[in-house]
Specification:
The chain is 75% helix and 0% strand.
């Protein structure tokens, strides 16, 4: 976004909450977890460790905690409910 707008990263960080209503980290988290939920619901054999890495998480455990904190259930349980 910085390159596209010509604004510094720090300026974007300051403007983001005013324009979007939430902090950039929160918006990125929601985007990642929404992507994860879509992928889990369409691919029952999904490798959660690989998904975590593709979404930018440092490890599967961090992804699982984040997913469960937002959805109320871990990714595997979410996938079973979608089947």
């Amino acid at each position: 976004m910085s390159a596209a707008t010509g604004l510094s990263v720090r300026t974007l960080q300051r403007l983001f909450p005013d324009c979007v209503g939430v902090r950039p980290k929160w918006a990125i988290r929601v985007y990642r977890l929404n992507d994860a939920a879509k992928r889990i619901s369409t691919d029952p054999g999904l490798d959660y460790a690989r998904l975590a890495a593709e979404l930018g998480y440092s490890d599967q455990a961090h992804f699982t905690r984040d997913f469960a904190a937002v959805t109320g259930i871990p990714p595997a349980a979410y996938g079973r409910r979608q089947a």
